[in-house]
Here is the input.
Amino acid sequence: MGRIHKLPVSVVNRIAAGEVVERPASVVKELLENAIDAGPTRIDVAIEQGGIALVRVVDDGGGIDPEDLSLAVSQHATSKLRVAEDLERIDTLGFRGEALASVGEVARLVIRSRTRMADSGASIEVNGGRMGEVVPEGCSIGTTVEVHQLFGNVPARRAFLRAPSTEWSHASEAFVRTALAHPAVAMSLTHNGRRLHDLPAADRWATRIGGLFGMPLAERLLEIDATDGEIGLHGFVGRPEDDMASTRLQHLFVGGRPFRDRSILHAVQEAYRGVLLSGRQPIVFLRFEVPPDMVDVNVHPAKIEVRFREPSRLYRLVLSALRTKFLASDLGTRLAPPALQIAQTSLQSSQVMPLSEGDVAAWFGSSAASSGWQSTAAGNRSAGSADVPAWERVEQAASVGQEMAVQMHDRYIVVESALGIEVIDQHALHERVLYEGLKDSLARGSLEVQSLLIPETLDLTPAELEIITAHAETLAQAGMRVEPFGGATVIVTSKPVLVGNASAADIVREVIGRLTASVAGSGMLVDEVLHGLACRAAIKAGDPLSQAEVDTLVQDRRRVQDSHHCPHGRPTSLTLSRQDLDRQFLRT
Ligand code: ADP
Ligand code: MG
Here is the structure.
């Protein structure tokens, strides 16, 4: 007897549900796509318990005819495609006709809908794959879809859901992506009865971006507008100094659809190379316009990836549009080659180029102002903040076995040591020193915490608020007390003494970014917080230091475990050995 048989419809649906519905965020995404496809002016989303208990999406779009209600919840039933050729010119977000059937298989699904023509509507309910009757109902124009108790009938899947706060942060991201893709539709988001977003219809993309992430951020973005033949690229990118710890503010869209694409994000990283600190992430909102036959959206069950016919053209367009913008926006001076190369070029050119006395004075004046080296160059002229002439300081240092250190360009500290010349990145080293100090005092139970006389307030997005709430205890352990202050606002009431004057609100922002990006286990979260503290509290490139501060920093270097790398693993210093120098000057 044969052993192969056709699977019952319910098993087929259950399998499909596994691909389409992974977690509450997938439900939010599918319901929002359906709502958008219905051509609404407004969509309201309500979520309970991270979406595990309820996801409700209400739109005022075209509605579903009562006759079609049972088809709408059946597998492979759609109003958006008829023949295979339609797949070549998809202009709707949905087309696979499987979302509602899949959701109905693994939850309790209720749909109420009324079309624009009808005086009244109808409803249908599907519970764990069992479809109920279509019941007449007097509802307003548009569609309400409710999904209750996701995976309530599939304990094995339910067990894989994370805490409501985690599910919520994914669900709210799905809302954010749709809201970004469709600025012309008014949208709101409510979680556990609290209204977190209320976005009016916007005719400018920047207005919608500002509505979601704050106008101050939106106003600082650089606008991108470029074309290559029939391909258009529009949107906004962040200034290098507005960098982020995570990729959370990187959004790509094509045809009203958010998508992920490693190649395009690689082009973005390339464009920012040299202007962004390594490990930091730029802000990117980019929208591609491509003819329908140049993009295939049917390559992923959840439609989060797309395939372009000429990916390399898009890559080049992104890279050149961003680079051109940076150069035109006066960020060009930061597009410099790596430090060591600069050092070598200037050494070489100074061998061949005769310098006037004015040049020399200007060079010393600009690069060594307020440092001990100035007096070396200018004979016995007194030197900025250092009272002792440099040559004396070198001698003194040598006699007590210390190193001579000066600050250059307000960002590097140059140390003369027995081995040669060491160039230290002041921010990277200070960050390492602070991090080790914090870690050490925490381990010894002696972390000093100062209460803020005037607590700092901080407005957060819903997702950020959930993260902070979920990790409030970890933050408190690290000396940062954060308390709710109504709505999505929190106040920071304490910080560790070690972080000095750094703004507590800035630190909390940094920490949120890190916790969002973090895949670390809970034991490592405190560490993640300490990194955030150290990063924000450390002196920055560009901060002038007094000679005393320079000396302290160089001395502190000896106390830390790994002074050669900052907590992100970037080098904190480069060494030019005496041998290297001798070789460069052809002395060997
Ligand atoms: P798809 O979106 O791929 O067509 P779905 O299972 O998501 O498949 O939806 C099935 C059908 O139900 C859609 O083709 C559409 O006709 C109808 N539908 C679903 N949601 C809505 C809505 N909010 N407004 C109007 N029609 C809807
Ligand atoms: Mg759909």
Remarks:
- Residues 30, 34-35, 38, 59, 61-64, 72, 78-80, 94-101, 143 surround adenosine-5'-diphosphate (ligand 1) (CB under 6 Å).
- Residues 357-575 form a domain with the Ribosomal Protein S8; Chain: A, domain 1 fold (CATH 3.30.1370.100).
- Residues 164-181 form the longest helix (18 residues).
